[in-house]
Each structure stands twice: as structure tokens, then as C-alpha cells.
Amino acid sequence: MTRLVEKDVKDIDKTLKDYDDFFKRQTGCYMCEIACRAAGITEILPGYKIAVVPSTTGEGIISGFSESVCAILKHCTLDAFVTSRCDVDGIYEAIQKGADMIFSADDDRFIAFGTAVRAVAENGICTGEGFAEALLCSMRDQSRKVLILGASSVGRAAAGYLAEKKVPVDMYDTNADVLKNACAGERLIEKLSSSPVLKKYTYIYDATTSGDFITEKDVSAETVIAAPGMPRGITEKACEIATVIHNPLELGVITMYYVCAKQMYLKEREMGIR
Ligand code: 2YC
After folding, report:
1. What's the gap in Å between 180 CA and the centre of ligand 1?
2. Tens digit of pLDDT for each residue in 166-217?
């Protein structure tokens, strides 16, 4: 998992509207639509009040991170705020201010969770599935194989998601052990024993942390790359040729909200409070 830095998040608030319009031109949907599809939401859910709680543990606060998470949620017309306090004091403040859901990230884990019912959404899995749905919506031919690079939690979530949608997947990781243990038993996932020829694939999913390794000679105008990996694995020149779906935080955060909200809504219905 790559730890974001201030420059990765500092302009998100100002660029969200234009970026979402660009995202829609690329995929045919806005990020909220893709996130709902990835979360398997088919009906309108109640809007929950969300608190974003900064965490000072480990390497501490990333300047602008919580504010960017809040701005992304507000972009989806959700009711979100950043607590003035951090850590446990921030959780206390969130609940005192009536938050139904809390977003918080330390160095190892970024989650959204329900304050009144047991519900949790994890950023790596949600990012993996959100970008997989974005790729799916951009594929002109969903019978074609998708090459997934990187068997991290993001790559594994994407492989499982696409396999469940009956999309065949080739998966590769430079670490043979990591690859071996990924998505065991998934029939539609073929694990590659050697580094694939990128040009052979129209649809690619970059879940690596390599940065700038897919160049203009690896892509064509037909190529579509879903690229959640940070730093971005595709060079500027290749991005001018292919369709490259990439953002450092946005789609993962929106997918986390809908995954968590769906769990909360179903539990509340079970408990007869919805
Ligand atoms: O500002 C804060 O509250 C910090 N504790 C946030 C630390 C986030 C660390 N994680 C990352 O930078 C990203 C996540 C967004 C997902 C993967 N890496």
C-alpha cells in the first residue's frame, strides 16, 4: 500500500467536478454511479451523516487527507464533516455530533464503519472493486481477457470482482508467492508464470506501486487501463493514447461509503428501524 503525500491530495477538492465529468466521458458513468454498482446497490439508500476523523498514529496526519475525503463525500451530496479532534477524542466528537458513519485511516488501514450498527468498508477492497467496475463499464467487449498487474489487496479484489462478473482474467505479480496465494480456486483467473506482453491486452488493470512502467509502445487508442495503483503506472505519453482511469483517492472513498451504507441499511431493516 502506498502512503499518500500532501501533493497527492491537495488539489482534489478544487478539481472534483471537472474530474468527475472527465471520468464520465471515459466510463459513461459518474463516480457515484460506478461506486453504487460496485457496492451492488440497486435502490436509493438513506443519506447517512459522516464524520472523518484524523488519526495521528504512526507517521501521523497527512495534510489535506481528511479534508479531501470530506470533499469527495460532499461531492456526492452526502452530509460529511471533519472532526476538530483526532483519534479517540475525534471518535467521541463524531458520535456526540450524531455521525452515523466514521471514516478514519492510520498507516495500515483506511476504513469506514457504522457507529450504531456493525458495518465496515475497507479502502483496498473498495478501491479494487470500484476500479474493476469502472473498467467493466468502459469495456466494449466484456468477453476479452483483462490483465491484472499486482496481486495486492487491490488487485485481488479486482480479480475476484471481475471473475464473479464472468470476465476472464490473467493475473501477474513479480512476487511468485504473492501471486500463488491470490484468489485461490477462482476458475476464471489464470496466473501468469512470466511477465506478460502488455501490447497483447486491450484491457489492463494496474494495481502495482511501480509507477510509469506502461509506456506509449505498450498501448494503442483501443487500450483501456484502470489504474488505482499509486504512483500511476502509466506514462504521460501513454495516457495521451490510451484511456487511463486513475485517481488517488476519489473512487475508493465513494465506494467505501456505499459498501458501508448498504450494510448499515440492511442491518437497520433487519432490526426494524428502517
Ligand atoms: O491524516 C491522517 O489521518 C493520516 N493518518 C492518514 C494516513 C493514510 C495512510 N494511507 C494512505 O496514504 C493510503 C490510503 C488512502 C489507502 C492506501 N494508502
Report:
1. 28
2. 999 999 999 999 999 898 878 899 999 999 999 999 999 999 999 999 999 9
Tell whether pTM > 0.85: yes
Of 80 and 274, more confident: 80
Q: Are 16 and 69 in contact (CB under 8 A)?
A: no
Can you give 213-233 as a three-state secondary structure string? CECHHHCCCCCEEECCCCCCC
Q: Is 232 exposed, middle or buried (0-12, 13-18, 19+ CB in 10 A)?
A: buried
Q: What percent of the chain has pLDDT over 70?
A: 100
Evaluate whether 201 touches 145 at the Cβ level (below 8 Å): yes
Q: How far is CA 64 from CA 10, 61, 90, 258, in A?
A: 6, 9, 16, 23
DSSP 244: E
Distance CA 67, CA 13 (A): 8
Q: Which residues line ligand 1 (CB under 6 A)?
A: 1-4, 54-55, 61-62, 65-66, 105-107, 110, 123, 249
Cell 505519453: give the residue: 237
Q: How many CB atoms lie within 10 A of CB 24?
A: 14
